[in-house]
Design goal:
CATH class of the largest domain: Mainly Alpha
Strand content: 5-15%
Number of strands: 5
Shape: globular
CATH superfamily of the largest domain: Ribosomal protein S4/S9, N-terminal domain
Distance between the termini: 20 Å
Helix content: 40-55%
Largest sheet: 5 strands, antiparallel
Number of domains: 2
CATH architecture of the largest domain: Orthogonal Bundle
Length: 201
């Protein structure tokens, strides 16, 4: 699946959740999209439920299939619970941390900021959105980019302090990945066990 560039509200309605951020579409049309969205639907198979959960996770974090599979393989090789390891790796992506820190309002815009070389990691310019951060890594806005309207307006609505695993300094626009988050600290509504079951077949 290539990166999705179609109607965002369609995907949100498909999964019944604001996948790409707040949307009024779920209030106006709480049923799935399509001409049969209001009608009675067949009961989904176990495989269909597992696949839908994986697709939802990919849409949420903006990841392609090969990237997601590689991340799952990496998670399965780590000690601990595979599903939680997978979510930790997803949360530790640079674009996601930029979003969580409040530097960007969405993951898509966070990915764009990283790609356009507005973000540094430990003082070094990094333009790879999928870059995996380590515990203790410092994420900051590049000095020349601090005056950007998109960044300043997003930072003014910053909510980074609600994440215990992150630290944020408003004055220097500097954040830190203190530790990898535990499952309770990750707000995304994902049943990671279904994804583990899907890949374990």
């Amino acid at each position: 699946m290539a990166r999705y560039t179609g109607p965002k509200s369609k995907i949100s309605r498909k999964y019944g959740e604001p996948i790409f951020g707040d949307t009024k579409a779920l209030e106006k049309k709480p049923h799935p999209p399509g001409q049969h969205g209001r009608g009675r639907r067949r009961k989904k198979s176990e495989y269909a439920i597992q696949l839908a959960e994986k697709q939802k996770a990919k849409y949420l974090y903006g990841i392609l299939e090969n990237q997601f599979r590689n991340m799952f393989d990496k998670a399965s090789r780590k000690d601990g619970v595979t599903g939680e390891n997978l979510l930790q790796l997803l949360e530790a992506r640079l674009d996601n941390v930029v979003y969580r820190l409040g530097i960007a309002p969405t993951r898509r815009s966070a990915r764009q900021l990283v790609s356009h070389k507005h973000i540094t990691v430990n003082g070094n310019l990094v333009n790879i959105p999928s870059y995996t951060l380590k515990e203790g890594d410092m994420v900051a806005v590049r000095e020349k980019s601090k005056s950007l309207t998109a960044i300043s307006s997003s930072v003014s609505n910053n909510n980074a302090n609600k994440y215990k695993w992150l630290e944020w300094d408003d004055k220097s626009l500097l954040g830190k990945l203190v530790t990898y988050p535990d499952r309770e600290s990750i707000p995304e509504n994902i049943n990671e066990q279904l994804i583990v079951e899907l890949y374990s077949k």
